[in-house]
Design brief:
CATH architecture of chain B: Orthogonal Bundle
Distance between the termini of chain A: 39 Å
Distance between the termini of chain B: 21 Å
Order of helices and strands of chain B: HHHHHHHHHHHHHH
Radius of gyration of chain B: 20 Å
Helix content of chain B: over 70%
Largest sheet of chain A: 6 strands, mixed
Shape of chain A: globular
Oligomer: heterodimer
Chain lengths: ~260, ~350
């Protein structure tokens, strides 16, 4: 197992926000984390990347216990695309993407050829190469989101965590973004966790699903186990229909 | 990439011209020819041959040159620390004065100036040290007051900074009122006048300013990553708490070095990095050194103006920096319409 997560309790104080979450992902799997607002999706991403003040958990990546690593070691194992798309406005896009190489740089932050190559490749993958010399303050929210994704890709980690990465993207970039994510899993062997609201996108791109409610696991498994109308209706408190389209066998979730 | 060769060249030429001006201008004007001959003679170890030449030599070497260097160091230290504070708190309003570091340094400096030291050379060595301790204490108090859990909201920081700063300033004023004989000199100090002549302040200031500014330069890249906020900085492999503590210490050292011998000089730490950011962009590895040069240049020019405006008397340089700085800053602020952070 590449990523092994076992969270006893985690949150912003000792009164935990999330609790009792266990799952394992193997190399190349894409986990879609779904659940209503306040169910703990963002807290889960923060707990795995160890930026919460209070964490009681066992998290292993490739056998390395994350609780015993420092920030630099951790940032070579996990890259995060956070929900907030704040980017310091005075930096160029290229400078921001190169900061994904910070875990591999010394104090001076001087980019080697390898760093520049990886940054360039990441910018190409997320379609921001044309903004390379633009100042981040002039980009739209969706463009900033793609810049942050490029930064995370440049970080070159086995695990990638994303919190609502498509929230500011238009339809085309949503699909392209998730296609790219899937190819990173299938071809690049990355293990990816994506917290998302759009159940149709989740159904289309997820290999495994984690449904959260009240800060804990409600269901974990593949589409047949999790994307069931009764289950989803109960989790979201709203009657939904799950339809399998005739062409391609794609699953679609429709609120009733 | 941004091409900065030209601005850098321009800054250096401007700095060299200002240095020459600063040495030439004052209650006695020294022509470039005399200046060259004095420098030539000194380099060869010759005493001034005539009465006039020896007077020039004295003015140049014991008054103008150390003062010029003091102004360069002070300007660089103020703008450098201002740049670091602005980056650290991700706020264009943060500067050594706003978060209380400068007032604390002033209180510390005045404390050690008001004590009668057994030997006068001692006091010079102690001024920057007590200024540093005062500044660090103030910043620590401000931090503790502003902290909410593990976060540091900028609004709290500025409110606490203003409050603690006023308190320290009030204490400083109290000490000044009691220091009867030295009142005039202390008052000038408070207004930002460089009243301490000679090499002693330069030599006492140098190690503090150098350690502070070199430390900040070394941390410049980490300061870049901190611009994303604590959470993303951690996820990019930065030890946020340690880095932030080190930046505060180095920036406070620089502030203390600046305040200890020249008193309260406002606006240098605020406007210089603010304006230069438009040229260099956000990368601290370029903005920090540019701010240091820019701060040195700005303060040196202000000092020259302060010396010639009501010659043969001198104005405190702090008055000039505020008189030029405040309107210019407001002009910039109005033009940018809050696009900056």
């Amino acid at each position: 197992m590449l990523l092994r997560v076992s969270i006893e309790k985690a949150g912003y104080s000792s009164s935990a926000t999330i609790h009792s979450i266990q799952f394992e992902l193997s190399e190349g799997q894409l986990l879609a984390v779904i659940g209503p607002n306040g169910s703990g999706k963002t807290t889960l991403v923060r707990a795995i990347s160890q930026v919460l003040p209070f964490i009681d958990a066992q998290i292993h990546i490739n056998g390395t216990n994350l609780m015993q690593t420092n920030e630099t070691e951790r940032s070579r194992l996990i890259a995060v695309v956070p929900q907030s798309t704040f980017v310091p406005p005075h930096f160029l896009v290229e400078e921001v993407v190169l900061m994904g190489r910070a875990p591999y740089m010394n104090w001076s932050g001087r980019a080697k050829q390898d760093d520049l190559d990886r940054a360039r490749k990441a910018m190409g993958q997320t379609d921001v190469e044309k903004f390379r010399y633009c100042v981040c303050g002039e980009l739209s929210a969706g463009e900033r989101q793609r810049v942050i994704l490029a930064r995370a890709l440049a970080q070159d980690t086995p695990v990638l965590l994303m919190d609502e990465p498509t929230s500011h993207l238009d339809l085309r970039h949503q699909i392209e973004f998730l296609e790219l994510t899937r190819s990173l899993c299938q071809k690049g062997g990355k293990t990816v966790l994506v917290a998302m609201h759009d159940l149709n996108l989740a159904a289309r791109f997820g290999d495994v699903f984690l449904a959260m409610k009240y800060g804990t696991t409600d269901a974990f498994g593949n589409a047949q186990d999790v994307l069931l109308p009764e289950k989803l209706s109960e989790i979201y408190g709203l009657a939904v229909k799950v339809i399998k389209l005739v062409d391609g066998g794609r699953t679609v979730v429709i609120p009733q | 990439m941004r091409n900065l060769a030209r601005p850098l060249l321009f800054a250096f030429i401007a700095l060299i011209i200002s240095v020459i001006l600063s040495i030439a201008v004052g209650s006695v004007d020294i022509s470039p020819k005399d200046m060259l001959s004095v420098i030539w003679n000194t380099l060869q170890g010759i005493e001034g041959s005539t009465q006039l030449a020896s007077t020039y030599q004295t003015i140049l070497l014991t008054l103008r040159l150390p003062r010029t260097i003091l102004m360069i160091m002070t300007g660089a230290a103020l703008a450098g620390s201002g740049c670091a504070y602005q980056g650290l708190f991700r706020n264009p309003l943060a500067d050594p004065y706003l978060i209380g570091a400068a007032s604390g340094a002033g209180l510390g400096a005045i404390l050690s100036l008001s004590i009668q030291w057994p030997a006068s050379s001692f006091s010079y060595l102690f001024v920057p040290m007590t200024a540093f301790i005062g500044a660090l204490l103030t910043v620590f108090i401000v931090f503790q007051l502003a902290k909410v859990g593990t976060t540091l909201p900028v609004t709290n920081l500025i409110l606490a900074g203003v409050a603690v700063s006023s308190f320290a300033t009030a204490l400083t004023s109290l000490l000044l009122v009691n220091a009867s004989g030295e009142l005039r000199r202390a008052l000038v100090w408070l207004l930002g006048g460089s009243t301490m002549a000679g090499w002693k302040p330069v030599i006492s200031q140098l190690p503090y300013a150098l350690i502070g500014l070199i430390g900040l330069s070394v941390l410049a890249y980490k300061l870049n990553v901190l611009q994303f906020g604590d959470e993303q900085a951690v996820q990019l492999g930065i030890n946020v708490n340690r880095t932030r503590t080190m930046i505060v210490i180095f920036a406070t050292l620089s502030t203390a070095a600046a305040v200890a011998f020249t008193g309260v000089i406002g606006f240098v730490g605020l406007i210089v990095p603010h304006i230069l950011r438009r040229i260099t962009g956000g990368d601290m590895r370029r903005l920090l050194p540019f701010s240091m040069i820019g701060g040195a240049l700005f303060l040196l020019l202000a000092d020259i103006i302060a010396r010639v405006l009501i010659a043969p008397q001198e104005l405190p340089v702090g008055i000039i920096t505020s008189l030029c700085g405040a309107p210019f800053f407001l002009f910039i602020l109005r033009r940018s319409k809050g696009k900056d952070w």
